[in-house]
Amino acid sequence: MVHVLSSRTLLRPADPERSRVFYGEQLGLAVYREFGTGPERGTVYFLGGGFLEVAGRSETPPSPALKLWLQVADMAVTREELTAAGVAVVREPVREPWGLVEMWIADPDGTEIVIVEVPADHPLRHRP
């Protein structure tokens, strides 16, 4: 049995500085820690209950199988803040058949990011 103490998602961007601007300035994720020096230095961001590490460099595009899922409190406010920061919305907010409101954006390398709001009437808000 694996006893997990912490976890993080690792991204190896094509252009690390461009990705740091996207995650740190445009999305406004708070920095947990930074390490190393130079263009491939690492930055670890708080990501709700986990962490996102942007470090190193990759010459290949990210796998389309990788997606980030970020839950927010208010989709309308989040959409407004992101577009004001220059983030392009790939898919406008939609209430899905399963009841969540989802909006899609992408990072500079094309990694898809699902922004999710759990509406007040959704079963996830009303656990027994």
TrEMBL record:
Residues 1-118 form the VOC domain. InterPro entries: Glyas_Bleomycin-R_OHBP_Dase, Glyas_Fos-R_dOase_dom, VOC_core. Coiled coil: none annotated. Pfam families: Glyoxalase. This is Glyoxalase. It comes from Streptomyces populi.
